[in-house]
Amino acid sequence: MRRRYWLIIILFATGLVLFCLGLYYMYEVGEAEYGFKLAILGAIILGIILAIGMLYVARVRIKILKDASQF
Prior knowledge:
Elements (H helix, E strand, L loop, with lengths): L2 H27 L2 H38 L2
Helix pairs in contact: 1-2
């Protein structure tokens, strides 16, 4: 696999772990402020991954539409 795919997979896993740890700290441990910060950081990372995925799908769709218009 290419390095950028590994980077995206690592970012996704990190964002998911941070988000879940934030929820754990908020609800189980009782550290609301620290848990909230972790959850927000994880959500931001997951949002970046979502934006990258949306741009990739848009790029692929434009390529498909360009190829289809040539026929």
